Amino acid sequence: MNGQGGSPDSVTPLDRDTLIAHARAVAAHAHAPYSGFNVGAALLLADGSVVTGANVENASYGLSLCAETVAVAKVLSEPWRGGVLALAVSGGPADAPGSTVQVTPCGRCRQVLMELAGLDGSDPLVWCDGPDEVLELRLSALLPHAFGPGALV
Ligand code: THU
Predict the structure, then answer these.
(1) Residues in domain CMP/dCMP-type deaminase (predicted)?
(2) What is the pLDDT of residues 85-107, one digit of tens each?
């Protein structure tokens, strides 16, 4: 990945297309029998590696995990590979593979992603896959005035 060793500003269109492809692919592995809505997330780390996650639902509905949260948990429970430069999210109905609905990270995921990004002070690009176009935002635009560790004085 071209983002290797760089900052969010060094991320390229190639990185975007690759991350979207990872997010689409991992969505197929979602465990979403209750919503029937598969989501995949792919995080590009500063060392050039990609960490993915898919949503994991539970019969006790409220325990379900979003794709982004699963990916963040994987990053933070493995040896540190550098901050997150960019991420992609892709989702759609499980019974219509390849049919993408534009998914922006839910509010809880925005907060969880912000915690990870804050570890190296980055403001990652967020690509939200969609049927017509990929929406590109900065995480800070998705969660302005975020609560963070700085408040815990
Ligand atoms: N979902 C995600 O995985 N990420 C989001 O940002 C939005 C929603 C999942 C949660 C649930 O398993 C399914 O999509 C339907 O809400």
Answers:
(1) 14-150
(2) 999 999 999 999 889 999 999 99
